């Protein structure tokens, strides 16, 4: 299995100062299901607004609906506009399709794919950080609000696989009101280490909570997380998919 960590676009810098609107999609297909599994998807009415950081655009990721097998087809079509400009001024940012078999000689347990569309030194360029999970199981993480302030809280949720130092960002935003349960899928290592980290912020007060466990073939963990100003139900279910290519 593969676990995607970060998605970056490298653009020719310096751009003239100002905010950028990013729209379009980045999706992964694999042999298990040829449907697009989106890791970024923004329409014209829901663009991602950002500012180039020395030519690096870090895109917020959608968590895939399911675990991803190791041989993938990466499909992407992104456009860029300067915030406030008319819709007709959108320009192509990066477009293309790229296949990445996990069995290649350059693959290791943690990989940073650099994808260029027009030659070895072309800009823009896409960076995708991936980890290969050799004995993978699919972990479904669910957060459900039990008690929240009427105005909601700022909530961050991240997962971590023990041998990879980077966090897997699952959620970072406002959580409240009639917000439905949050569900995320993470690929993790059977009998390895997995952690969930939560941070809630309300009225200037921050509360943190974390838990670690050992993923099994089929198991369920559930607990009520008490942040003093909020209570959230956390559940993690592990499952092994039959005939799932590693």
Descriptive overview:
- Helices cover 0% and strands 57% of the residues.
- It has 246 residues and is mainly beta.
- It folds into 2 domains: 2-132, Sandwich (Immunoglobulin-like); 136-239, Immunoglobulin-like.
- Strands 2, 3, 4, 6 and 7 form a 5-stranded antiparallel sheet that branches. It has a 4-stranded antiparallel sheet with strand order 5-1-9-8, with no helix packed on it. Strands 13-10-17-16 form a 4-stranded antiparallel sheet, with no helix packed on it.
- The radius of gyration is 19 Å and the shape is globular.
Shape: globular
Give the helices and strands as they follow along the chain: EEEEEEEEEEEEEEEEE
Q: Which CATH first-tier class of the largest domain would you pick?
A: Mainly Beta
Helical proportion, percent range: under 10%
* Average residue pLDDT: 83
Number of continuous helical runs: 0
Q: Helix/strand-derived class?
A: mainly beta
Using DSSP, what is the number of strands? Answer: 17
User: Measured on Cα atoms, how large is the radius of gyration?
Assistant: 19 Å
Strand content: over 45%
């Amino acid at each position: 299995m593969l676990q995607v960590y970060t998605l970056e676009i490298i653009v020719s810098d310096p751009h003239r100062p100002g905010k950028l609107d990013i729209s379009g999609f980045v999706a992964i297909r694999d042999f298990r299901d040829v449907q697009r599994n989106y890791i970024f998807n923004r329409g014209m009415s829901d663009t991602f607004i950002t500012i180039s950081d020395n030519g690096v655009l870090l895109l917020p990721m959608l968590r895939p609906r399911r675990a991803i097998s190791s041989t993938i087809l990466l499909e992407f079509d992104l456009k860029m506009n300067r915030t406030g400009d008319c819709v007709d001024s959108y320009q192509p940012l990066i477009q293309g399709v790229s296949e990445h078999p996990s069995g290649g000689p350059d693959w290791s347990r943690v990989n940073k794919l650099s994808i260029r569309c027009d030659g070895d030194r072309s800009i823009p360029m896409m960076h995708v950080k991936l980890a290969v999970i050799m004995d993978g199981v699919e972990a479904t993480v669910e957060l459900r609000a039990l008690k929240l302030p009427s105005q909601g809280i700022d909530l961050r949720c991240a997962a971590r696989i023990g041998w990879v130092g980077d966090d897997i960002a699952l959620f970072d935003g406002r959580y409240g009101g009639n917000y439905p349960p949050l569900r995320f899928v993470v690929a993790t290592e059977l009998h390895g280490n997995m952690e969930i980290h939560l941070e809630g912020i309300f009225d200037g007060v921050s509360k943190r909570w974390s838990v670690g466990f050992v993923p099994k073939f089929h198991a369920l963990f559930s607990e009520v997380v008490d942040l003093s100003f909020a209570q959230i139900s956390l559940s993690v279910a592990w499952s092994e998919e039959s005939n799932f290519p590693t």
